[in-house]
Structures are given as structure tokens and as C-alpha cells.
Amino acid sequence: MTDAPIRPEARSPRGFADRRGRDLIAERRLVTRVSAVYERWGFEPLDTGAFEYADALGKFLPDADRPNEGVFALQDDPDEEGNGEWMALRYDLTAPLARFAAQNWETLPKPFRRYAFGPVWRNEKPGPGRFREFVQCDADTVGSDRPEADAEIIAMACEGLQSAGLASDQAVIRVSNRKLFDGLFEAGGVEDAGQKLTALRAIDKYDRLGWEGVVALLGEGRLDESGDYTKGAQLPPKVIAAIEGFLASANSSDLSRADTLKAVSLSGSIGVIGESALNELAAIDAALNAMKVDQASVRFDPTIVRGLEYYTGAVFEAELLLETTDDKGRAVRFGSIGGGGRYDDLVARFTGERLPATGFSFGVSRLASALRAAGRGGEDAVRGPVVVIVFSEADMQHYLDAVSELRSAGIAAELYLGRAGMKAQMKYADRRGAPAVVILGGDEIAAGQVTVKDLDAGRALAAGISDNEAWKAERPGQVVAARADLVATIRRIVDAPHTDA
């Protein structure tokens, strides 16, 4: 008697998702549309590898509380001296850009304007809607310290959101400046860099946790619903009170950008650094007004800080306002669908010289999921190929001729290559999302005809027929055409307006 083979359990790693046609097509369509906006604004494409040397990522990591610093890393093969460098999967598309700019700055046009898209990886705790692998689409300007460069990125992001299918009132980009908090910390005597970063990451959760959750993270720490404890920034009570007043100063949705700046300036001491931040935001506001970006699309919001450490000035956060629900009809809040800001010190890690930069990143995977949750997935429904039904081995040449004609005409088509009967093949075509099936039985071949079932029309018509016998009698969506008219008949079906039934 032999032991049964040990078989691994078929399972996906936590935080990684398998995605089929619908999700992939939706994401690719978003990337195509947003990339077209980036190119129209004068940004060139750039593709960097998935891995970077770990020291190139440095301290600017998304989750410093984890032992491996929030990234997936591995050690390269040893070199001639026996040393193997550590490499890590990129956690965003900005750090690789900083490395590329430092490595190639002498040969690049200045400022350097690039866009990029692709998957990124973060070794963080996964959760609902929070994955360890997801797709981003970025645009950045490296080499300009002008606030107009920030304003241009913001205005372009607004156009990108509209190209993705969102109306002007379905998303808003909230803008602030990290130096506002630098000034506030300076005025409160907080000098420790670790305290500052922990505090900023706490404030970044304001929209999700509210003040009650944030104040715990600004103080001793917070125990969340899962039982995980997060150590707090341990700020002095007077600084926590100042932050509360600061956040409340412009917490009114009807303030214009200029009104928000005025409210912040009157909220208390923000020091010289904070005053310079207000001046930069005022210049951004003037440029946005000149580009006719309305107040509802871009708002100033001092609660926006962004969680990554490398931001040095203006920061942006795109928030989805569209109502979304899960598969059970319950309301779901997606919140941020993109963000960015100014990072003037990132390239300097390699060169020692400060090089200003600013950019914005769309969370493509998140935006696609949000649109689907809002019932906007119809246009991204997978429309499969036309399926040619197989009846007899003896007539295989007829089937191959038909599928070849359709493909030559630019129509996606496939020949059924299973061994099932007619009923199962029809079910297969329906599950593939096929717009039509081609039927070439013996009678059709002898008569020089072809039967075409318009599955799109059949689904729509069948929805209004409750009686099975009536459905069989009416044969919704089925037509008979001359064999020579196969391509034209299929073309009319494929080119007709289509929605996901």
C-alpha cells in the first residue's frame, strides 16, 4: 500500500487577488484614458523595473512598523566578492523615478515630465479593499520648484478623473501643505522626527477614524477593533490641543480656497514655515483660477497630510464622492482614489543636491473597484468572442473557414474546441459573454446559409418573455442569412450598442 500523494491546498496568498477579464479590462481602460490625458499635457512615458535595490528605497517606506519595512525583499546572487545586495519590489512608482532621475539627470530634458503605470507591492496587513498588490498610474514633474507645477498636476488630475468617467461633482481633490504642520510642530516645540511622522500618519487617518481615533494616536496609542495596538506619537497635550483647533479651523465644506487659507492663518501660531506654506497654497490657488479649475473640484483642506514620509510641501488627495455599495447593497465608502504632492528631497538622497519634484498617482485598481461598486461597471463588462458551434468532425473545414473569416475582418472569434453537444456549447458561449454564435449545421451548409444567434438581443428580449413556450416560438435574436453575408451579419451585432444585461 502506497501513501496518498501530498497535495497542496489551492489558495491565493493573503492580500493578492486573482482577476479575470472584467476587472482587467476595466483597469486597462482606465490606464488608457488617464495616460491619454497625461500625454496631452506633455508627459512622456517611462517604465522602470519591478525591483529596486533596497537602499534606493531607503527610509521612505509605507509601513515602518513591520520587520521588513513594508516591502517584499530578497537577496540577489552574490557578486565576485561574495556579497549579495538586497532588492525589493517597488512599493510605488515615485521612488523608482527618483532613482532614474538621479542616474540619468545629465541627459534628461529639464524639467523632466514623465508618466508611468504598473503594479506596485506593499507588505502591509491586508483587509477589505486593501491589497498587497495593486496598479497605479502616475505623472510627475522633476526639476521645477514653481507652485504652478503643483497646480498643473492638480488640474491634470481633475481631467484624468473626468476621463475615467467621473462627473465633476463625483470626485474632489483636496489640497494642503505638509509645511503647515511643520510650522505647528515648530511652534509647539516638537523636534523629534519620529514623533512628527507618527503624528502625520495619525492625522492622515482623520477622515476614517475621526478626531477620537486620531487623538489616541497623537497621544499614547490606539487599540483597534481587531485587537491590534498602534503606538501613539506621545505629543504634549498642548500640541494635541493645537492640532485639534487647527483641523477644526477650516472644517467647513462651503469655504472657498481663499477663505480656507484665511481661516487657517487665523487659527493660531504656525510659525514662519507655516506662513510660507500658506503663500505657496495661495500661488497654487491663483494658478488653478487661471486654468479655470472650479472651487468644487479642488478644495483646500488642512487635514490632508499623506502618509508617506517623503512629501515636503503641497500634498493632494483625490476623494470619491460617488455613492457606492457592496454586492449586498450596503453602502461602502471608498474615500481616497489617488494622491500625491511635492517631494523635493527624494532625488537628493542619491546626488546630495536638492531637486524639486511634484506628482500625482491614480490608484487604478481602487478606482476600478469603486466604479464597479457604484454600478458603473456596465461599460467595462467583458464582451467575449463570437463562438462558432461545432457539430461534426466531417464539417470541420466549414467551421475553420467561418472563424478565419471573422478574425480576418477584425472580429474576435473562436471555434469551440471542447467535445460537448449543442446545448452545452450554447451555455459555454453565454458564459463567455459572446455577442453571438454561428451555427453551421448540415442543413445550413447544404443551403449555403448560416444561422446566427444574437445573444445580446436574445438576453434583452428574453427578459420580457415569462413563458418558456413563447420564448421557443419567438426564438429571440435568431436570424438566418446567406453564408456569404456572415461577416456583415456578425458586424451589425458586434457594432450595436451594448450594455451588461
Automatic annotation (TrEMBL):
Protein keywords: Aminoacyl-tRNA synthetase, ATP-binding, Cytoplasm, Ligase, Nucleotide-binding, Protein biosynthesis
Main localization (coarse): cytoplasm
Enzyme Commission number(s): 6.1.1.21
Annotated L-histidine binding sites: 92-94, 122, 136, 140, 306, 310-311
Highest taxon of the lineage: Bacteria
Keyword Cytoplasm in annotation: yes
Domain Aminoacyl-transfer RNA synthetases class-II family profile as annotated: residue spans: 39-385
Gene3D superfamilies per UniProt: Anticodon-binding domain (3.40.50.800), Bira Bifunctional Protein, Domain 2 (3.30.930.10)
One Pfam family in the UniProt entry: tRNA-synt_His
GO MF assignments: ATP binding; histidine-tRNA ligase activity
Record keyword S-adenosyl-L-methionine present: no
GO terms under biological process: histidyl-tRNA aminoacylation
Enzyme class: ligase
A GO-annotated cellular component: cytoplasm
Compartments, as annotated in UniProt: Cytoplasm
Reaction equations catalysed: tRNA(His) + L-histidine + ATP = L-histidyl-tRNA(His) + AMP + diphosphate + H(+)
Family as reported in the entry's similarity comment: Belongs to the class-II aminoacyl-tRNA synthetase family.
Subunit structure as annotated in this protein's UniProt entry: Homodimer.
Name of the protein in question: Histidine--tRNA ligase
Gene name of this polypeptide: hisS
